[in-house]
Amino acid sequence: MIFIKAQDNKKYRVDTVFYQIGKVIWLPFCMVGVWFSHGGYERFGEQMECSVRKLCGLPCPGCGITRAFYYLFQGNFVKSFWLNPIVIFGLLVYLHFMMLYFYRSHVSGTIKEKEIRILVYVYAVIFVLLAQWAVKMVNILCLCL
Fold first, then answer.
1. Is the Cβ–Cβ distance between 116 and 13 less than 8 Å?
2. What 3-state DSSP class applies to 84?
3. What is the dihedral of CA 80, 83, 86, 91, to 10 degrees?
4. 87-96 long-range contacts, Cβ below 8 Å, gap at least 24?
5. What digits encode the pLDDT tens for the residues 82-117?
């Protein structure tokens, strides 16, 4: 098990810390998403252009996340996934982790025995992010040939 040591010398499990953070950020995330999708994107969307794409003309792995976030909260999941699948995938990973932790801690009681491996989620997100970026780059290279 992996522990985080706090200033008061208590040890906290990593999955417990992530679960507590996940509970705290859920409401602000939804509030910002609703605000952003109902006026925030029109006001600030131009300021959020990718500086990597501006400088070199090629997309970075995060290109399209702002628009994907916008369409996610508009309810257009297909367009959100098409722009950058990491937004939908990240939401699914978040929901999976939160439900698994809740189930293990409140229903089955097995959370004390086995820790949820956070690195599996991190590696999966990185893989999806880099895979979608590679697909974008291949499409750009094929169009240039």
1. no
2. coil
3. -10
4. 89/124, 89/125, 89/128, 90/125, 93/121, 93/124, 93/125, 94/22
5. 989 999 999 999 999 999 989 888 887 766 767 788
**Cα–Cα distance for residue pair 43/38, rounded to 1 Å:** 10
Residue with tokens 């706090």: 6
Please identify which residue in the block is written with the tokens 């090629």.
58
Task: For residue 85, give the H/E element and its range.
Answer: none
> ∠ at Cα 49 (46, 51), nearest 5°?
145
User: Can you give the pTM of this predicted structure?
Assistant: 0.78
User: Rounded CA gap, 19 and 9, in Å?
Assistant: 20
Phi, psi of 13 (to 5 degrees): -70, 145
29 burial via Cβ count (<10 Å: 0-12, 13-18, 19+)? middle
> Quick one: which of 121, 110, 115 has its CA closest to 2?
115
Distance CA 142, CA 23 (A): 44
